[in-house]
UniProtKB/TrEMBL annotation:
It is found in: Golgi apparatus membrane. It comes from Solanum tuberosum. PANTHER family: SIALYLTRANSFERASE-LIKE PROTEIN 1. CDD domains: GT29. This is Sialyltransferase. Keywords: Glycoprotein, Glycosyltransferase, Golgi apparatus, Membrane, Signal-anchor, Transferase, Transmembrane, Transmembrane helix. Belongs to the glycosyltransferase 29 family. It is a single-pass type II membrane protein. The keyword Cytoplasm does not apply. GO terms for molecular function: sialyltransferase activity. The keyword Glycoprotein applies. Its main location: Golgi. InterPro entries: Glyco_trans_29, GT29-like_sf, SIA1/STLP5. GO terms for cellular component: Golgi apparatus; Golgi membrane; Golgi trans cisterna.
Length: 469
């Protein structure tokens, strides 16, 4: 007789303690709003734990069978159901793909939230600011240079000038909604074309064709395209006269690419931050990084994220082998439940567009602050949690809207009237309100990664604000 009561009591206690944690969090959030600083009470762990259980629920709701298992306030394991067909064989490690993936959610929040404030295009101001930027780093971005350093800077400038803007041509928060379109063959199972085209900007990958034949599956709008060095040969065919599409090279530049660029009118830049080794393999991650550095909401299409997938396919060619779908699937699901991306796929196509179980920007900001605070405390560095906490190197540049735009002075006739100016000399006043606000909040500072995936080694370049100019 007493048994049910006994079991009810702890439940009530648990409920009360959950409520208590909630109200502590609320109070903390409010007081940090008013004082602008963190309260002395250490709430980092309750805030992160709350974020974790939200993540767990989100994975359960959206993961199509994936489950999240909490280890502590930072670490989580994403598990595929027993019996999942893990058919991709890793030749290198002689194993089938594992069914479990461990992630440090605190690190992931810090890393991916940082991208929202980042510049991901290589600029002249970056090379000028970074120690040995020209001598060392520039040389790494040029293939067939014949030397491992830029002993002759003029020579390196000759290679890079065509693709090197003076300062960032794009801005954090420039667009509200962006679509990142992968190349997966399962795009042919859906008709996302119109939905994709309704975005403020569309980012595509390598040689993905855009034409009437595939329009209903992948749309027709083209704004950005990330390409690797090998793509130079057939680029002109892929672009098919679309002069506006911005090309962003996510590898190195070389003579052939420069020769090709001289024949087209499209703006071309180099991606900054390509030394990467992260959860999911493949080129899709860089498209997401690029998107986050410009867009509030990132919708992904054509990534292989559904269960029961057997092989690497592309929507425009015959299937090939050699991809690792489980690792990618788990990581993309983590990113969705961290509020980084929104996944669209055949198995999610009929789902109501309800994102209520994905954390809000406010919740992410709080978790971000807690993760940063905790990390600094563990490293024995108190204080200084402002937006420049990770700036290792500082540089200076001219005010927004002045200085040379892209390209060298000896542009070909084709390129002389190219479409660079659509973005590069866009007046500050024409930027979206959120982008202008961010620029002012950042005091005109652009953040760049020094090396691929490191969090706390940024190159920060200060631009005088209009009034100081
Ligand atoms: C697992 O996938 C392989 C390759 O696609 C297939 O041959 C096999 O039948 C699948 N096994 C199960 C149990 O679905
Ligand atoms: C540096 O490179 C430029 C351009 O290729 C060349 O004209 C110049 O002679 C080179 N300078 C030296 C010292 O080799
Ligand atoms: C590269 O461009 C910069 C800025 O426009 C210019 O000062 C420099 O002379 C150019 N270098 C070469 C080798 O063309
Ligand atoms: C190139 O674009 C035109 C229309 O702009 C289209 O008719 C043609 O099919 C396209 N060619 C290829 C190879 O996609
Ligand atoms: C990002 O920028 C915002 C201002 O728009 C700033 O408040 C925030 O601290 C920055 N976050 C990071 C991680 O740099």
């Amino acid at each position: 007789m007493t048994r049910p009561r006994l079991s009810r009591k702890p439940a009530l206690v648990r409920l009360l303690s959950v409520a208590a944690v909630f109200s502590i969090i609320l109070i903390a959030i409010q007081s940090s709003f008013f004082t602008g600083s963190w309260t002395p009470v250490n709430l980092d762990i309750p805030i992160l734990s709350h974020f974790q259980s939200n993540l767990q629920q989100c994975v359960a709701n959206r993961g199509l069978g994936l489950t999240a298992h909490i280890i502590d306030h930072c670490n989580v394991i994403l598990k595929f159901p027993q019996g999942t067909n893990s058919t991709w064989y890793n030749e290198q490690f002689k194993i089938f793909e594992p069914l479990e993936y461990k992630y440090d959610v605190c690190e992931a929040i810090l890393l991916w939230e940082q991208y929202r404030n980042m510049t991901t295009v290589l600029t002249r101001e970056y090379l000028d600011s970074r120690p040995d930027g020209w001598f060392d780093y520039a040389a790494k971005r040029i293939a067939q240079l014949g030397a491992d350093k830029c002993y002759n800077q003029t020579l390196c400038e000759e290679h890079l000038n065509l693709t090197l803007p003076a300062k960032p041509p794009f801005h954090p928060r420039q667009f509200r909604r962006c679509a990142v379109v992968g190349n997966s063959g399962d795009l042919l199972k859906t008709q996302f074309g119109e939905e994709i085209d309704s975005h403020d900007a569309v980012i595509r990958d390598n040689e993905a064709p855009v034409n009437e034949k595939y329009a209903k599956h992948v749309g027709l709008k083209r704004d950005f395209r990330l390409v690797v060095r090998g793509a130079a040969g057939n680029m002109i065919k892929i672009l098919n006269g679309s002069d506006d599409e911005v090309l962003i090279i996510k590898s190195v530049i070389h003579r052939d690419f420069n020769a090709m660029i001289k024949k087209i009118r499209n703006p071309v830049y180099l991606f900054q931050g390509i030394v990467l080794r992260r959860g999911a393999k493949g080129t899709g991650m860089k498209s997401i990084e690029l998107a986050l550095s410009m867009c509030d909401i990132v919708d992904i299409y054509g990534f292989t994220v559904d269960p029961g997938y057997t092989e690497w396919t592309r929507y425009f060619s015959t299937p090939r082998k050699g991809h690792n779908p489980l690792q990618g699937r788990a990581y993309y699901q983590l990113l969705e439940c961290l509020g980084v991306i929104r996944i669209h796929s055949p198995m999610r196509a009929k789902r109501k567009q309800d994102w209520s179980d994905v954390p809000s920007q406010e919740m992410i900001s709080n978790a971000h602050r807690a993760a940063l605070h905790l990390k600094k405390k563990q490293a024995g560095e108190e204080g200084g949690l402002g937006q420049f906490v990770n700036c290792k190197v500082w540089g200076k540049s001219g005010p927004y809207g002045t200085g040379p735009v892209s390209g060298s002075t000896d542009m070909t006739d084709t390129r002389k009237d190219s479409n660079y100016n659509r973005w590069e000399i866009m007046p500050f006043e024409s930027l979206r309100k959120e982008a202008r606000k961010h620029y002012m909040q950042m005091e005109g500072v652009s953040l760049y990664k020094m090396d691929g995936n490191k969090l706390d080694d940024l190159v920060c370049v200060k631009h005088p604000l209009k009034s100081e100019a």
